[in-house]
Amino acid sequence: xxxxxxxxxxxxxxxxxxxxxxxxxxxxxxxxxxxxxxxxxxxxxxxxxxxxxxxxxxxxxxxxxxxxxx
Length: 70
Prior knowledge:
Elements: H1 3-23, H2 28-37, H3 40-46, H4 48-51, H5 57-69
Helix pairs in contact: 1-2, 1-5
C-alpha cells in the first residue's frame, strides 16, 4: 500500500467511526471497541480500492451492512 493509499484508508476508518457513532448516538470510544471486536478496521482497509471512490459517509453504510451480517 502506498503512502497515499494508507492516508486514504486512515481517513476512511476515521470517517466511518465518527459517522457510525453519530448515527447510533454512541461514544466514539464505544464504536472503536465494537469495530475492534468485529475486525471492522481490517475490513475497511481491505476494501480501500472501492471505498476511496465513494463519499466518506458511505463508509459508515458499508460498516452497517457488514455488521448486520455478523
